[in-house]
Prior knowledge:
The chain has helices at 3-15, 31-37, 68-80, 99-114, 130-137, 141-145, 151-162, 179-192, 196-202, 222-225, 247-256, 262-271, 284-295; strands at 20-27, 42-49, 55-61, 88-94, 119-124, 166-168, 171-175, 205-207, 209-213, 218-221, 227-228, 276-279, 301-303, 309-312. By secondary structure, the chain is α/β, with parallel strands linked by helices.
Amino acid sequence: MAVLAKYLQEAFADLCPSGWDCRCEVPVLSKEFENRLGYSPRADVCLVHHETSRRLWIEFEISRADPVANHAKFATAHLFKPFSPDDSFVSMVSSHVNRGRRNLASNTVHLLRHIGIPAFQTVLLPTIEPEEIKRLNHASLQMLQSSPLDARLELSRVFQISEPVIAKDKLRIHFASELFDVIRNLYRWNTQIMETDDAALWKRRTVTYFVFDPISEQFAPSKFCAYVIPILAHTVHPTQDTGLMDMATYCRLDETEPKFDGYLARNHLIQHLGMRLRSQEEEPAIATAFTHWVQRRTNTIHVHPSGPKFLLPPDWYW
């Protein structure tokens, strides 16, 4: 096992919150099934709640190896021993896994949901660059234990993204767990605001904080980008917007739900997903792109008089 994964296992066990047990290297299937299959689906960490028996199956994806393999192991294990609807699979992927592989794994999470597994993928140590992840993974356990790594924040992120922010009737709203979903929300806002009905719902709103996508040079309100609607379904809906925020839900919650909050959304993007907050003075090139973008949206966006603030993905993401 990689040293960094071993360190995180021990740290999660030490930091395990009251009311939970922390177990390491937990098999998903019985030994009999493992022998029959020829492979062994198991979690790096399994958190088990004392009273409800809810389980959080956590996988650390640290190296450049393809993380989809573990997603597939959990998906096929579900065929033989279905996961409880109260359980969740959480994959934590470091910056050392390249963008294509992490996004493929992120999309595979949606497939897991379609077969009935409450699944999430999130970032692991999001402020640490790939080369530093590689160095830490080859350090000694003693060195990691004396390092400033904040394992408490990593454990906190597991609960932050796997528990709904809002649970009302059949609606479950979560914080976005992955940078990929944040950017997908950005694209969705820009698509929906061009639709007459959605634009009428949005009207014209004052916005200060905007997520920026360096590839398309598009922006979107950060609060819209920070929430998702994970869907468990046994049929695949052929849409690229599955699980994302939508304009109608956003506008309804924005008027009625105190937990649907811009500050909480922004703090989540920065603290838990490693996004960077920048002013237009700090990023003149982005400010120029923003001017071109917002000039085409004056009917729907009024920029706060203090000026726009930009939330940027970490450099390693691209």
